[in-house]
# Entry
Amino acid sequence: MPQAPSEAYQGKRVTPTAQEQVITADGGYTALSKVTVAAIPSNYGRISFNGYELKVE
# Structure
């Protein structure tokens, strides 16, 4: 009778950054069970563009 594969899932929590992030399971885990993305920090800059001017606040 076939056996079910052994599965070790990992959960991760990340915070948005200006750079792309690739989220993968650590060694010893077969997959991610969930990825929680935290809210953008309040001190994170905001960029706006009105068609003429780019503004970083």
